[in-house]
Amino acid sequence: MDAVKNKPTLNFIEAIIDADLAEGKNEGKVHTRFPPEPNGYLHIGHAKSICLNFGLAKKYNGLCNLRFDDTNPLTEEVEYIESIKNDIRWLGFGWEKREYYASDYFDTLFDYAVRLIKKGKAYVCALKAEEVNTMRGAPDKPGKESPYRNRSVEENMDLFARMRNGEFPDGSCTLRAKIDMTSPNIHLRDPIMYRIIHASHHRTGNKWCIYPTYDFTHGQSDSIEKITHSICTLEFEVHRTLYDWYIKELELFPPKQYEFARLNLTYTVLSKRKLIELVEGGYVSGWDDPRLPTITGLRRRGYTPEGIRNFCEHIGVTKRETVIDIEMLEYFIRDDLNKRANRVMAVINPLRVILTNYPEDQLEEMEAVNNPEDQGAGTRKVPFSRVIYIERDDFNENPSKDFFRLAPGREVRLRYSYIIKYENVVKDEKTGEIKELHCSFDPESKSGMAGSKRKVKGVIHWVSVKQAISADVRLYDRLFAKPFPDEADEGKDFKSNLNPDSLKVKTCYIEPSVQGTKSLTHYQFERVGYFCVDNDSTEEKPVFNRTVTLKDSWQKKKQ
RNA sequence: UGUCCGAUGGUGUAACUGGUAACACGUCUGACUCUGGAUCAGAAGAGUCCAGGUUCGAGCCCUGGUCGGACAGCCA
């Protein structure tokens, strides 16, 4: 009964693996791979794939390779390889020595191509790119056969060798598989296997001037690595038949491909092309801009690997194309940070408060709990004196009945300190702006004292003006103002939906305990949100990035 | 008039070889609280795209539709 009840539900891929294992396929082995192309930075969508592939290997006691699909020297760069490896490691996954490159297989792939030529299953086609495209037909129209389709094996062998030798210019000819120009699946209409690109490759240098296409590379690479479950996104579903065709004609180990739906999130974009546009167009500060859904951006924003992994585990894996509410991601990062981030008091919109009955030169140290969720985190001392800052929002001259904070005639508790009472407000005579507040404190009410038992409805955070250190806070918000950025007005694109308030920089005042902390350290600014130290921090001017706000039911109520 | 894929509360996922829809996020109550945080308790919210059929019984099986997506790079 309990066993049934607690039976973990499987995603469709796990169900397939379970069945395969039950049938004794692949000698009981599970071998996956994560195959990025080194032409951009990884984002949260890749994290889903990474968690899936590495996660499956871990769950089934198998292995997961890292393989760079580097078949296009025109767009790929070493810079990306390092960032990709770095991001995967940061997410908590490793591939030991199994770091492979499709380019490692160029020789093998060339041999495979020769084998197909000899079988009469491939030919060198001298059609121009444009001609190839038009003759391919359309989804609902069959294609036409290339006039070069029936060249002899000898002629094809000779031509292919000459392609390799660099006798022909880029684009002059290609090697094509001879399949079926009338196939309802366009990918089977004599697909290109090799193209001529006189460019140096980041790994093979100038050894090659012909490069295999992704379609002629991916399946065989999986096969060479003995990948048992080749997991990819939905758009490759229609390619599967082609991969299977190559494998069958070449008589190679047959990996099985399964496709799942890629991740989509509200209020952001996850396409490489759009991300590049934002970075290169200067809409953000770079690939690691904390507003971007890139792994490096999320890391800088203060997201944790655990938070991201939990998110990936909970969104599931299916073939349905869906859009996940960004709130889900935010929930998982709050959930994780709540457990690990030390609390600290910081005031972002300061309002000066003078405690009129507190001695001018007195200084006290208040004991504060670092993390109520983690007793092991200990306590710290927070300096307290006559003049403090509180948040402007924590005072209201004309409060409603459900406002719990400071107001005329009311009291509030200063967290880890005294209960204070409103006395009067000082305003700018001309503008009417509130300059400062005069309050009195109750000496018997200090936290921990007998008199502190008194209940006050509100508790607010504060910082002693004299000891506070000032820092820049970067208040990040969602990158886009609309949940579906692509839904733009006529003639405009997703960039027109960028949120103009996605970043606000302010000076804030923080208790001195944060002095000198390392970058990427996570904090919760009590009652405000989670923040993390940015690498731009200096000794004189610390910089904090807001990861995510705290859930705020008062804020919600006001709206 | 093509091929392939998909369709379950607002969102995402689940429901063992058919037994009468569950979990998470979100929302709303309430309790508790020196974070209007966290936590705890509870509620509302779908009858599973539609129409037939098989069956004692269908989200699961069959038939036919509808809607949505992918595919026409010498990108991956």
Summarize the structure.
This protein is α/β, with parallel strands linked by helices and 559 residues long. The chain has 14 helices and 25 strands. It has helices at residues 2-5, 12-22, 44-59, 78-90, 106-118, 129-135, 153-164, 214-224, 240-250, 272-280, 295-301, 305-315, 326-340, 553-558, and strands spanning 31-34, 63-68, 99-101, 122-125, 174-177, 192-196, 210-212, 229-233, 256-260, 342-344, 346-347, 350-355, 364-369, 379-384, 387-391, 411-414, 419-427, 434-442, 459-460, 462-464, 469-476, 503-510, 522-525, 529-533, 543-549.
Radius of gyration: 31 Å
> Mind summarizing the main beta sheet?
7 strands, mixed
SS strand fraction: 15-25%
> What is the number of beta strands?
25
Secondary structure category: alpha/beta
Number of helices: 14
Q: Spans of 5+ residues with little confidence (pLDDT < 50)?
A: 1-6
**Strand line-up across the major sheet:** 10-23-24-25-21-22-11
Q: Helical proportion?
A: 25-40%
How far do the termini sit from each other? 47 Å
On the 0-100 scale, what is the average pLDDT?
A: 95
Shape descriptor reads elongated
